[in-house]
Amino acid sequence: MVPRKVFFTKGVGKHKHELQSFELALRSAGIEKCNLVNVSSIIPPNCKIIPKNIGVSQLKPGEITYCVMSRNKTNEPNRLVGAAIGVAIPKEKNSYGYISEHHSFGEVSKKLGDHVEDLAATMLAMTLGLDFDPDKAWDERKQEYKMSGRFVRTQSIVQTARGDKNGLWTTVIAAAVFLP
User: Fold this and answer.
1) How far apart are CA 135 and CA 12, in angstroms?
2) Which among 1, 87, 88, 89 is placed 20 to 30 Å from 121, CA to CA?
3) Number of helices (H), then strands (E), in the chain
4) What count of other Cβ atoms lies within 10 Å of the Cβ of residue 109?
């Protein structure tokens, strides 16, 4: 299967049981009814990014669903946890893109989102055999990277949460979900 569509989602769940907090995070993200299979990091050429609500509406209960997922958890009160997905896609539609996932403790959403976007752009450049420095390649005005003459658009989805004050398990997820 080569995915034709992808959507991005995120969620948070809290519960006294670790597994149940993960289930609630999946439910919050709208992907709890699927059998999720984690895959690595490539967005195929011509794969269309669609809105979450449209993507979730196309899922069928029990189907095998491929995704790139970042997941983190804590049961420490007030500890900041984060999960993020970053994507780098060349403007040429017939080129493939790259997805990065990262989870952290203590990073605010903006920092975590910037990190996964830089990571996705750097990893895409490496797979294409291009020299790339994210600090020098970023065009602030255009809000995109330039790699050896190629323009690359990036985006991220980030979920952060503070650990429950009473020590419940707190799970955060971010995912890129592929559709046929």
Assistant:
1) 31
2) 1
3) 4, 11
4) 15
Q: What is the identity of the amino acid at 89?
A: I
| CATH label of the domain that carries residue 70 | 3.50.20.10
Name the one residue in this structure whose structure tokens are 């809290």: 14
CA-closest candidate to residue 107, choices 70, 68, 145: 70
Q: Which of 129, 176, 173 is nearest to 150 (CA)?
A: 129
When divided into structural domains, the chain yields a total of: 1
Does an H or E element contain 22, and which? helix 18-29
Model confidence over 127-160: pLDDT tens digits?
877 766 666 665 554 555 666 556 688 899 999 9
State which residues form the domain around 168.
Answer: 5-179
3-state secondary structure 122-158: HHHHHHCCCCCCHHHHEECCCCEEEECCEEEEEEEEE
